[in-house]
Each structure stands twice: as C-alpha cells, then as structure tokens.
Amino acid sequence: MRIDAHQHFWNLEKQEYPWLNPSHGPLYRTYEPEELAPLLKAAGVEKTVLVQAANSHEDTEYMLGLGAKHDWIGGVVGWVKLDDPLEAGRRLERFSGHPLFKGVRHLIHDEPDPDWVIRKEVVEGLRVLASYGLPFDVVAVFPNHLKHIPYLAERIPELRMVIDHLAKPPIKDKGMEPWASQLAQAAQYPQVYAKISGLNTAADWEHWSAADLQPYVDYAFEQFGADRLMFGSDWPVSLLAGDYAKVWEQTGIALRGRTAEEQEAVLGGTAARFYGIRT
C-alpha cells in the first residue's frame, strides 16, 4: 500500500489560517480533495495522512469531515491545545473516538518562543496525548526545534514522535552540520520517527532534483533505518518548488539504491504501522 504520510487541505472561505497570506503566492487559495485525487491516482498512492494547517479545533473538525467523504484519506493529524493539559484531555476524549483521528500537531515554528514545545505545561499536555496512545508530529524546523526532541523523548518515553520534513535540513546551502548531529541525537530514541517530506522546499526552488536530496535521504537512512522513515509529499506547500508528480518521481529516484523491502517501508509500510492505517 502506497501512503502519502503528509499532505494538507485548507479552505479560505471556511477557516482561518493566520500564517497564510498573499505573500505565499500560489498557496493563498483553497486546496481541497478534488484537486489532489487525480494526482494521487497518477502516482499510484492509495492513502494519505491529512495533517493540520491551523492551530484550531475547527480545522480538525474540517479535516475529519473531509475524511468521512473520501476513503483515500487514511488518517487525520489534528490539533488540541497542548499548553492547557485539561482542555487537551477533554478534546482528546472526544477526538480519539473517531477512527480517522491518528495524532496531534502544533505549528510550533510559528510560536514566538522557540522553546515553546519544552515548556512545563506543554510537556504535561504531551503526556496527556501519550496516555491516549496517539503520536505527536513535530514541526521541528531547523535550527530551533530539532534539539528539543531528545529532551521530550527522555521525559515522555511513551510518546511516539515523528519529525516532519527531516526538520528542514540546509539543502539549498549543501550543509550538514549541526543539523546532522542533532538528527542523530534524536534518532537514538526508538520512539522517534521521521518523514522524508518537504525537502524540495528546503532546496533551490527553481533547480532541484533527487541528487540534491540524496545526501540527506541517505543520512536519514543511516540514522533511522527504513522502518522509522515515511514518505510525505507536503502538498500543496510543495507546489512552491514543483508539482506532485516531480516530488513523487524524484523521491523515488533517491530511494532507488534501497532494497525492495526498504522502499516498501518508506512508501507505505512505516506510515501504516505508525498511524494505524488499514486498507
């Protein structure tokens, strides 16, 4: 089963997305399932994980509603107010009963405080999340957030985490450190996974290919292994630097040196296990 473990939808007429404004160019419009469906079919992708694009309960309800209408949406990563553990618990009591609700994310990279995710109240909120057996998608945009993952892993060992977009490595600058050292530290914890996603927008938007992604993909394999890595398109954010077909194709090229079993894991198996997605 081919799974895109990271994609988004938003409707500017129904929801508010504080981060999204005209400066984002082609992203500043509504994106919904009817536009993505033919792209998935062309790539042979059978299921997706729909990930939150706003820190709001309304966005989560919106995504769950879309999932009820489109059976190829295999799961939803929503939002609860992690810095209010009691409120987070109340919402999780409700959301966790929905078969498509598979985890939680917060746009931590939009928080003025770069250390928001390790605040005492947020750590308590993450403990509540872990008590429901649900994972946390970490928007660990380098250099502010990746370094916090070992801290969280030590204090909440029962919390499964997945690093979105490999924490946005410095691909455009062809750099490795200190990103590589921080990723390696995070990978020491078996409950931490990572997504090979969003890499094209960390590269030169106009000129990128699998060759630019390869060193970072290979390094991620060295640290995590295929059983803790999963593919994600990051559509429609990925449109800033290429279409769905290019992201799928070039990621596939970057995986060509891997065994069939490793490719199967990254392109579907890992996500199916991590999020509990069934055919």
UniProtKB/TrEMBL annotation:
It comes from the Bacteria. One of its GO terms (molecular function) is hydrolase activity. It holds the Pfam family Amidohydro_2. Residues 3-277 form the Amidohydrolase-related domain. InterPro entries: Amidohydro-rel, Metal_Hydrolase, Metallo-dep_Lactonases. Belongs to the metallo-dependent hydrolases superfamily. This is Amidohydrolase-related domain-containing protein.
